[in-house]
Protein DENND6A (Trifolium medium), 238 residues
Amino acid sequence: VASLVSLVAPLLCSVDFRPYFTIHDPVFARLNSIQEGESFPPMILGVTNLFFLKALRNIPHIVSVGSPPPNSNRLPLSSRSSTGRVSGKPEGLGIQQLSLRKFSPSSLLNAVKMRRDGPLCLMTEHKEAIWSTYSATTKPDTSILNRLIDAGLSPRVEESMSVVNNEILRRHFLELTTNFLAPFSPYFRTTMPLEGSSPYTDPPSLPPFDANEFLASLSARGPGKFILKRMKSNWLDL
């Protein structure tokens, strides 16, 4: 949860996020009472109890990370059994699974299989995957995905390679955030205090912000090459 929230830095996460959510949390009763078709409140929950997969079937996005503990009776992905598979696609949700591996025919088949099974397949075996009802407006950045290093089975190699992968991903999201904030730079550039100015003087006031004027200038400016090459559709639809 902390990793997801930090990816939008320096922007602040404006939704409720709880790294250690349990069934004893007072909010759980309210979330558990959400009926099919009702919107799930905007929040990020970190859980280890797989009971939430059954209890909160209306949750729109599920991210599974990490490795199962050594004493776990859940099978790893590499030793999957052909029997006992749970058909776990939540009712009423069009789940899309996004593979984080390099693109290949085998990874495509695995993605289709996990999309069909749904997140309830985590009840029988652990796998790192994403299920989401969100229809992406941007294309997968294959240049970033192909730079990520598969650490293999060695814990020592996995630890060192995770540092490299973390740096690649954080640089990528920092670039995304920087490009997202670029249209707002005129509102801050002219109000920055001069170097060497007294810290006791009043800070300069921000220029007035007009939403219609900003959107008109944004439409004329365009999204820029960085975002345009990643778009699936007209960026103004955002």
Summary: The longest helix spans residues 155-181. The chain has a mean pLDDT of 75. Residues 1-59 form one domain.
